[in-house]
Amino acid sequence: MSGVQTPPPEEEDLRLGRTLALGGAALGVLAASSWVAWLLWCAWRPGVQAPVPSTLGAPQVGRVEQVPFMQAPPEEAVNAREQARLKGYGWVDRDAGLIHIPVERAMEQLVSEERAGGRR
Question: What total number of domains does the chain contain?
Answer without folding.
Answer: 1
